[in-house]
Amino acid sequence: MTEDEQRKIREREEIAARVAAFRAPQEKFQREREEYFVSTLDNARKVERPSLWP
User: Fold this and answer.
1) H or E element at residue 8
2) Over the chain, what is the mean pLDDT?
3) pLDDT by residue (tens digit) across 14-39?
4) Secondary structure of residue 12 in the 3-state scheme
């Protein structure tokens, strides 16, 4: 393997590691947003609303 090929392999590995490091917190944030949405929607559905019709 030439030095250029080895450099390209190292660069690809570094990019893959950076993408993985970025993706993990993004997935965590997405799960937290979804959990917040579900809990907020559940709480909103529990609130008793006044009837619009007498």
Assistant:
1) helix 3-46
2) 92
3) 999 999 999 999 999 999 999 999 99
4) helix
